[in-house]
């Protein structure tokens, strides 16, 4: 009875392996898409026109909020720094005309040097915000291009690199104090 149950399980396992091979071949044929050489250029173009559109074309929907956050947050800080720069600039211009309100809660206790330093600070941060916004814009274009290239990359079971870790038992029996490990990398084309 035990013999029949072992043989029956082995035969059943072999049958499943054959079914898996047949199924994997049909799935591979179904997943095959012809290479579109213009897809990366198209994705880059779409993203350069409307940020995030190339990511949508590549079906990387989760990247769209990152693109808009990466461009929107520095744009917000640009607007805030521009507003602060304008406030300190207009106060400095008033002081050059001789108008100085010492009761003003924001500017009353500041001298002209502090107003100039504040202008430099907010101008520098405003310019940095522009650079960061443009950087995220360019990064989104590059990301759409690279993602379009990689979606066409052939990844299947034939193109694999698998590390295999092994302990050498013969060496272990001879030398009880030391373990010998081997790393074997197998690749198929």
TrEMBL record:
InterPro entries: DUF5683 (IPR043738). Residues 37-183 form the DUF5683 domain. It comes from the Bacteria. This is DUF5683 domain-containing protein. It comes from Myroides albus.
């Amino acid at each position: 009875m035990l013999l029949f149950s072992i043989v029956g399980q082995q035969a059943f396992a072999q049958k499943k392996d054959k079914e898996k091979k047949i199924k994997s071949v049909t799935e591979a044929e179904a997943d095959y898409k012809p290479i579109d050489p213009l897809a990366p250029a198209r994705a880059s173009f779409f993203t350069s026109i409307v940020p995030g559109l190339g990511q949508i074309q590549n079906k990387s929907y989760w990247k769209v909020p990152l693109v808009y956050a990466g461009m929107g947050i520095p744009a917000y800080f640009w607007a805030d720094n521009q507003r602060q720069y304008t406030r300190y600039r207009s106060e400095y211009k008033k002081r050059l005309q001789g108008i100085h309100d010492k009761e003003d809660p924001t500017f009353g206790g500041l001298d002209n040097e502090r107003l100039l330093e504040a202008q430099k600070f907010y101008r520098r941060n405003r310019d940095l915000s522009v650079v960061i916004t443009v950087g995220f814009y360019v990064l989104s274009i590059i990301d759409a291009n690279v993602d379009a290239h990689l979606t066409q990359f052939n990844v299947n079971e034939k193109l694999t690199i698998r590390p295999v870790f092994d302990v050498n038992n013969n060496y272990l029996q001879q030398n009880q104090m030391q373990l010998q490990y081997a790393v074997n990398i197998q690749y198929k084309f």
